[in-house]
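Record type: monomer structure entry
Structure origin: computed from sequence
Chain ID: A
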Amino acid sequence: MLVRPQHGRDGAARAGAVPTAVSGSVPDGLATGAAAALVDVPAPTLRAWERRYGVPVSPRTLGGHRRYSISDLDQVAMLLEEISLGMRAAEAASTVREVGPPSARTGELIAQVVGAARAGQPHAVANALDVSRQESGLSVTVDDVVMPAVRRLARWCADDEQVAATAQVSRWLRTVLAEAPAPIAPAAVLIAGTDPFTADLALAALLAHRGLATVLAGIADPAASLPTLVATTTVAAFVVVAETPARAGRRAALDTLRAGRTVCPERRLFYAGTVFGGRRSRADVPGTYLGRNLSVVASLVVARLSVEAPWTGLTHPPVARTG
């Protein structure tokens, strides 16, 4: 039985539970009524969004009936998340179209990761992500497989299941982080995540494989942990990654960024993630927004620090080692 996700004031679509098949592929697709019930959107609205904004573009049966895949539902959920963060529907739809649905191969890998994570199979999760890394490199794996997988888990799993499943992905990221070569710069990039999306850990892995030292502030109360971390770390830059599409997630990120101004100058204070994707959501936010794409965020941090080489210890832009 499909359980309708709830749209509260503080968040995006969440599902109490869905069948395992929905976390992977939907071979025959969902009819409009079933899809609308799952994302808690009236069926006429779902059809209208496709006509007006091209989100999602669902395939048709021979009889002309729409059929929705899990990727289609992800697009609708993302559209709802962007609207909940203050975007107008047209702007939100443009963002969703820019991200686009995954390719067939990427969709297959995402489904493997999600299915194995929900089943509590860390070795299967690691195998799928290792295959992706071998085929496409670490940056593409993080951007196109890891983050879409954890977002799907957050959208369609109950809270307890999401935490347990996401932990399987975090385990792989910690392994990747531990494999990184010794940093070429003595100062560290301090990274704070404000939600259990593993985005902070993913960014740390990307930066570490670009030759930078990283320190994770944690997600319980990153603002409160800063004084202790600063006392023991030379901070090159401070990055806050916020993925939870909710007012509470944005408040936590803002509090952490404001506290971050005591850690380093604003020119080395950065933030990233979907919470601040809309222009209006970035009004009066301290620091520089680097975007949603974590590999781009990592490259921009490296570029900024390479300019400040005398202080950070970097003498030239480090070569990305993301294979």
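Annotation 1: The two ends are 41 Å apart (CA to CA).
Annotation 2: The mean pLDDT is 81.
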